[in-house]
Amino acid sequence: MPSISKPTVIHPSLRRNELGLTVRDYEGSMSTLCAGCGHDSITAALVRAIWESALPPHMIAKVSGIGCSSKTPAYFVSGAHGFNAAHGRMPPIATGANAANRELTYIGISGDGDSLSIGLGHLCHAIRRNLKMVYVIENNGVYGLTKGQFSASADVGSKSKRKEPNRMAPIDPVALGLSLGATFIARSFSGDKEQLVPILKAAMTHRGFALVDVLSPCVTFNDHEGSTKSYMHVRNQARAATETDFIPEASEILATIGQNGAVNVTMHDGSMVSFKGVPPDYDPTDREKVFSFLQERQSKGEIVTGILYIDETVPDLHELSGTPNFALTKLPYEKLCPGAAALEELQEEYR
Amino acid sequence: MQEGQYLPQSIVDPDVTSPERKEIRINDFAFKLANVNGTGSASANGLLMQAIFRMGIPVSGKNLFPSNIQGLPTWYEIRVNKAGNTARALDYDLVVAMNGQTYERDVREVRAGGYLLYDSTWPLDPHLRREDIAILGVPLAAMCNENFREPRERVLMKNIAYAGALVAILHIDMDVVEELLDEKFAGKKALRESNRKALRLGLDYAKEYFAPLPFRLEKMDANRDKILIDGNTATALGCVYAGATVAAWYPITPSTSVMDAFKEFCDKYRQDPETGRNNCIILQAEDELAAIGMVIGASWNGARAFTSTSGPGISLMNELLGLAYYAEIPAVIMDIQRVGPSTGMPTRTQQGDLLECAYASHGDTKHILLFPANPAECFEFAVKSFDLAERFQTPVFMLSDLDIGMNDWVVPRLRWDDSYRPDRGRVVSAEELEQISQFLRYSNEDENHVAARTLPGVDSRAAYFTRGSGHTKTGAYTEIPEEYQEVVDRLARKHKAAAKFVPEPLIVKRPGAQIGVVTIGGCDLAVREALDGLARIGIEADFLRVRGFPFGESVEAFLRDHDVCFVVEQNRDAQLKVLLTNETGAVKEKLRSVLVYGGFPLSAKHVIEGIASQMGEWKNAVHQ
Ligand SMILES: Cc1ncc(C[n+]2csc(CCOP(=O)(O)OP(=O)(O)O)c2C)c(N)n1
Ligand code: SF4
Ligand SMILES: [Mg+2]
Fold first, then answer.
1. pTM of the model
2. Cα gap B36→B587, rounded to integer Å
3. Average pLDDT, stretch B269-287?
4. Which CATH topology does A23-242+279-318 take?
């Protein structure tokens, strides 16, 4: 992917976050995606969310697979290391990276082809391991980079550019996540930055695997009439099931929560997700209820968005593995090598 | 046992008194135990092997087992040889036939003048008799049925009972056996008692009815500084000593025991005494694609990470191996080879992954390979693999195999130098970054053509984007021919430079050598034994065992200096020969092959026959 560097003139009026950094400090190189591609809007939301969360750039690791979507880690936080892996193989790379250094914030960007076809198995297992990372699927219903074939997320009846309808049932990442026991599930729309930014911020504080499915229209191959992943269709059919506030310091707002029937979920790091508007009977911590709610709404053609499910009680891969609470890479070699005397002693067992 | 209770059903020993029989061979024979798998024979066979080891005698045990959990034939071969020639024998002085399914074949395998021991509870089929061998019947099932109640115990104890008989007729030191049983069943009194009883049943019976055999054991002192260990355990131990903290794997025979052992060692050595935390993480991946991905991700972040697998796993890893090669990320792969192609024969040994590993992945790729010959080298080379992977920022394969990995070998005690420090390669630290104006990932190569890397989490000025797509020497995306070539040409130079860092070949020169013999890995012992055999028939040969790829100058010189080299290896397609022809200046016509690839370990016989039969052909060719 060609990367064109941007001029680094900083407008004096740009606001600074807690680290004294401006939004520009979280940008990457210039995007080379098609003008109007949904993926670029997601990049912008990520820049905003990471800046607002005031993460030190070097403490972020960006990982992706292959596809137009997977190119985007080049377009945000150039001060973070990035790893553009192979098609569908980002979850294993992220798993190994996280295993070695749990201190970084892992932001994974994938596409619907990358995650729901070639890499589906890996996605499922990253969910099972509750790998602590933000996993964004930039979902456009097609393989953008290979020029518009249907992906596994294409809806039944959705038409290709050549007007051929897709006939096979889609794999819905949200339903998949729910059935596999994913511990943070959200859906949003690339065109709804207001909703997407707080979702991403909440996802970054989640204890484990945060699955964020973002509908992200492909203007070049899947934005026509008859497509269920077009801007028009998504805009018309998207319904925010939940409205959430992300509150970085839970203590600040303790006085107001619990009012208006709002559900509040304390995140692992002490921040809080406050569900303001929730449909009656909806409980974002009750998997079955969420599942039937989604089934019902989706059967009506609605695209349900928002933070849909959170469970902060499940340990992540490191907690399950009993590793130290710092990066394994920080262990000095002296702690890792048992030494000559131990080897001598051990070998008495091999006599 | 009451006297005369079990009369041997057949003792056919036509010439026990013949003069030839009277010549007693000490510590130089081979015997084979034919069993049904899943019946617990492994522990009896292991006991015999270990007892002989403790008697100080050079010994080897080869487990020839099926890909099955219960009910199929399995064999265990033990060879003792005072001179240390412990490669597979092929020729058995004694066969213990405990498996009806393979009786016929097992009887056939006894060499003329040898012995067969069988369970005489049931009569032996007269067709299966041989006039030229002695047949020893021991009513193993009958004795065990009478002395043990539980059906499972009866089956298990039959094995210990035949071990008891062997103790008697081979002169295995009973004190050593008792000591081993004490150690094995410490704290398990009932089991210890059953084992003792079963052992006695066989021993007493054999003592009563049979004379000791004309080949037997006598204590030696060859194993004082030796251990008995399998290659997979040694490999895992090497990974622990190398400081590996991340291991990712998907179960596959014959590599599984690498990770089993690694887990055990980590439980022992990597649990932090203060915090109780595990100073390592073992990831059982969803498949081998994931396993190598995890290794690459962890290595990218600066951990020492490895996977263990076998051929089918390497096939699956191919795509990401190319990524690691091209993006220059360390990775250590322990390939415990088995018989391919496809599922092949999963429990049989082969050296069939050489070419696959040397050139794994699409496009122009070349990797660093290490070839251990035994568990001691597995330990040493495992450590070396990590140093090379980090020094050269690239995947490194250690090619062990089922024979090395899963069989117990007598090897010199492993040594460790406490002054060892890992070679972490060129990694720019935060402090060093202060000194440089700009960090460019694939620039400023050193004398080995390696460019420095930075690790995530260190400094935002050192960040770069790792990609498997075309990149320039600064790490930026490119599709421009010159920029692309500049990087891949350096990778080729880098690979060449590694020749000086991989283990040197092992060379043994003999005066008056007419030919060279080149071999690899676990063929070592058989080939060396064959050199003596060849000398006896007038063929003197120099010996070279390659231990690493890329090949260095000493390999080149050896090939250059001999009119002909026989390349002995365990695969059909002469993969080592192909690699040598491809990657050295060797003239193709000067290389000839001896190939043994049926799945069982190599024997000196194969090598002697393979070379001797081609000598005339070669000489004719030379003199034409
Ligand atoms: C092993 C392999 N097979 C096929 C491809 C070709 N390929 C590149 S991107 C892509 C599909 C990408 O689709 P998606 O993940 O939805 O990303 P999008 O471009 O739509 O954002 C395919 C099939 C590849 N790079 N690697
Ligand atoms: S092809 Fe589609 S997905 Fe790819 S950049 Fe263009 S609009 Fe975006
Ligand atoms: Mg797509």
1. 0.96
2. 48
3. 97
4. Rossmann fold (3.40.50)
Angle at A283 between CA A278 and CA A289, to 5 degrees: 120
How far B595 CA sits from the closest chain A CA (Å)?
33
Residue A84 bridge partners (DSSP):
A64, B467
How much is the pLDDT for B375?
Answer: 98
Segments making up each domain of chain B, as ranges: 14-216, 229-412, 430-500, 506-623
Residue B579: its H or E element: helix B575-583
Q: What is the pLDDT of residues B39-60, one digit of tens each?
A: 899 999 999 999 999 999 999 9
Q: What is the pLDDT of residue B7?
A: 44
The C-alpha angle with vertex B569 and arms to B567 and B570, in degrees rounded to 5, equals: 160
Task: Give the per-residue pLDDT at A251.
Answer: 55
Amino acid at position B277, single letter: R
The ligand 2 atom nearest the CA atom of A221? 2
Q: What pLDDT is stored for residue A288 in this prediction?
A: 95
The verdict on domain B229-412 having CATH code 3.10.400.10 is: no
Question: From CA A76, how far away is CA B606, in angstroms rounded?
Answer: 62
Say what percent of chain B tops pLDDT 90.
92
Tokens of A89: 């193989």
Name which of B52, B269, B281 to mutate to probe chain A: the one with the most chain A Cβ atoms within 10 A of its Cβ.
B281
Of ligand 2's atoms, which has the minimum distance to the CA of residue A39?
8
Candidates B281, B289, B300; nearest CB to A89: B289
Distance CA(A317)–CA(A129), nearest Å, equals 5
Here the ipTM equals 0.95
Report the residue of chain A nearest B242, measured CA to CA: A337
Ligand nearest to the CA of A67: 1
In this complex, the residue of A83, A121, A323 whose CB is nearest that of residue B287 is A121
**pLDDT band, very low/low/confident/very high, at B128 (cuts 50, 70, 90):** confident
Ligand 1 within 6 A of CB of A244: no
Task: Please say whether the beta carbons of B393 and B329 come within 8 A.
Answer: yes
Q: What mean pLDDT is predicted for residues A327-336?
A: 98
Q: For residue A146, give the ligand nearest its CA.
A: 1
Pick the closest to residue B398 from B580, B547, B615 (CA basis): B547
Q: Cβ–Cβ of A328/B246 closer than 8 Å? A: yes
Q: How far apart are CA A338 and CA B2, in angstroms?
A: 55
| Cβ contacts of B293 on chain A, cutoff 8 Å | 85-86, 89, 91-93, 95-96, 122
Query: Rounded to an integer, what distance in angstroms lies between the CA atom of residue B131 and that of residue B129?
Result: 7
B337/A11: higher pLDDT? B337
**Residue whose CA lies nearest to ligand 2 atom number 4:** A144
- The answer to whether the B14-216 and B229-412 domains have the same CATH topology is no
Q: Rounded to the nearest whole angstrom, what is the distance from the C-alpha of residue A140 to the centroid of ligand 2?
A: 9
Class (C level, CATH) for B14-216: alpha beta
Q: Which of A266, A271, A329, A320 is nearest to A61 (CA)?
A: A329
Q: In the predicted model, what is the mean pLDDT of residues B144-168?
A: 96
With beta carbons less than 8 A apart as the criterion, state whether A112 and A186 touch: no
**Per-residue pLDDT at A140:** 98
**pLDDT beyond 50 at B360:** yes
Cα–Cα distance measured from residue B541 to residue B538, given in angstroms and rounded to the nearest whole number: 10
Q: B244-271: per-residue pLDDT in tens?
A: 999 999 999 999 999 999 999 999 999 9
Q: Give chain A positions within 8 Å (CB) of B245.
A: 100, 328-329, 331, 336
The Cα–Cα gap between B597 and B348 comes to 10
Each domain of chain A, given as residue ranges in start order, spans 23-242+279-318, 251-277
Both structure tokens of A206: 């989640």
d(CA B401, CA B405): 6
pLDDT band at B69 (very low <50, low <70, confident <90, very high): confident
CATH topology of domain B506-623: Rossmann fold (3.40.50)
pLDDT in tens, B471-517: 999 999 999 999 999 999 999 999 999 999 999 999 999 999 999 99
